[in-house]
Design a protein that fits this description.
The protein has about 170 residues and is of the alpha/beta class. It is built from six helices and seven strands; from the N terminus they run E-H-E-E-H-E-E-H-H-E-H-H-E. Strands 3-1-4-6-5 form a five-stranded mixed β-sheet. It has a two-stranded antiparallel ribbon with strand order 2-7.
């Protein structure tokens, strides 16, 4: 029996402050961790429907994004698939097509993985900035920890990289 393919998908726009959190988490995971072969890290940016292909390959998906539902900035949410439409408002994202809509299309095409969203309440996501706000930046390690736990639950493994990749990325 082969291992379940696990997609860790970070989505967001790096030019809109906290909106880029999902992509920043993927960068941090790539820089600081090594994963089992069944784990795929994917920078989904604002790709919308083009995310159908990575979803179709996955048996499990962990989506990292901002979730604007009115909580305190920096609040981290774990939202299971059964609660997506109750807890994530339609168009809570600035992406061309939000992840929930993409999952609906994936299901119609027969390629929808078991999915969980690890989200964070943004402080600033509409002004041009490449910086994360302090409430989100201060919770980045907590988001990474939540994602690592989800990878383990889905059947993947990870370890800290012996020598982290050094990048010029600004968090």
């Amino acid at each position: 029996m082969s291992e379940k393919h696990i997609l860790v998908l970070g989505v967001g726009n790096l030019l809109l402050g906290d909106e880029g959190t999902g992509v920043r988490v993927i960068e941090k995971l790539e820089d600081e961790y090594v994963f089992s072969p069944n784990v795929e890290l994917y920078d989904g940016g604002t790709l919308g429907l083009r995310l159908l292909e990575p979803f179709a390959r996955a048996g499990a998906a962990i989506v990292v994004d901002i979730v604007h539902i009115g909580g305190q900035p920096g609040t981290i949410y774990r939202i299971e698939e059964k609660d997506f439409f109750k807890k994530i408002p339609y168009k809570s994202s600035l992406h061309e097509l939000n992840v929930l809509e993409t999952l609906i299309f994936a299901e119609e095409l027969g390629g929808k993985p078991e999915t969980v969203v690890i989200g964070i309440e943004p402080a600033e996501w509409t002004s041009f900035s490449t910086e994360l706000s302090a409430p989100v930046r201060n919770r980045l390690e907590d988001i990474v920890s939540a994602v690592l736990k989800e990878i383990e639950k889905a059947g993947g493994s990870w370890k800290k990289a012996e020598q982290p990749v050094r990048t010029a990325r600004a968090l």
